[in-house]
Amino acid sequence: MGLSSEQQSSLVGDLDVRLRREAELESVFSAAVPDWYGRLLSSLILATGNAHVLYLSASYTLDGSAFSLNAVLFTQNLYVRATVSGTEGTASGDESEPVVTALPRSSLTSMRLSCDHNAIDEASTLAWPGKIRLTLVFARDLAVSLPLGAARTEPGDVELHALVTTSRAFLER
């Protein structure tokens, strides 16, 4: 891919900060960082190159000792989905292999969305557009509903609103 060590270090740092900012992933980083995490970062960078990440959302579920991580990110031209699953605290969990899939955003076929802002309530103090729930549907009916997790942050909500705008532009082409 031809990234210098400085570029690679910068990309890893930026993506690491974005993932650690996800409240849904708090438990992943509460103890020792799992071995698969570095491979996840590398795989995501390999998929996105040095493209700027416009939006990132993640979820992490733990059922007993079985874990599942899902993450999605969008660049100007790509939709990238990553999954990792395994058994926490075991060698097999540490050896879990991230699976990263990238699709062109131009394969977007539709979007469904809702927000909690009431456009006709003049007394509403809720800022436009409020909390957004977005489902993007790509070719072959591959869909993703965002945000992935229940925890929300203001920066994440701002990025999601921007993603609605850029996704609408893809649909208008």
Describe the structure.
The chain is of the alpha+beta class. The protein has helices at residues 5-20, 35-48, 91-94, 154-172, and strands spanning 55-63, 66-74, 78-87, 99-104, 108-115, 132-138, 142-146. The strands form 2 sheets. Strands 1-2-3-4 form a 4-stranded antiparallel beta sheet. A hairpin with a 2-residue loop joins strand 1 (55-63) and strand 2. The radius of gyration is 17 Å and the shape is globular. The mean pLDDT is 89.
How far the N terminus sits from the C terminus, by CA atoms, comes to: 30 Å
Whole-number count of domains:
2
Rounded radius of gyration (Å): 17 Å
CATH architecture of the largest domain: 2-Layer Sandwich
Determine the mean pLDDT.
89
Could you give the order of the helices and strands? Answer: HHEEEHEEEEH
Strand content: 25-35%
How would you classify the helix and strand content by structural class?
Answer: alpha+beta
The largest pleated sheet is described as: 4 strands, antiparallel
- Give the helix level as a range of percent: 25-40%
How are the strands of the biggest sheet laid out side by side?
1-2-3-4
Question: Spans of 5+ residues with little confidence (pLDDT < 50)?
Answer: none
Strand elements, count: 7
Using the coordinates shown, work out and report the CATH topology of the largest domain.
Double Stranded RNA Binding Domain
CATH class of the largest domain: Alpha Beta
Q: How many helical stretches?
A: 4
How does the SSE layout of this entry go?
Layout: H1 5-20, H2 35-48, E1 55-63, E2 66-74, E3 78-87, H3 91-94, E4 99-104, E5 108-115, E6 132-138, E7 142-146, H4 154-172
Antiparallel strand pairs: 1-2, 2-3, 3-4, 5-6, 6-7
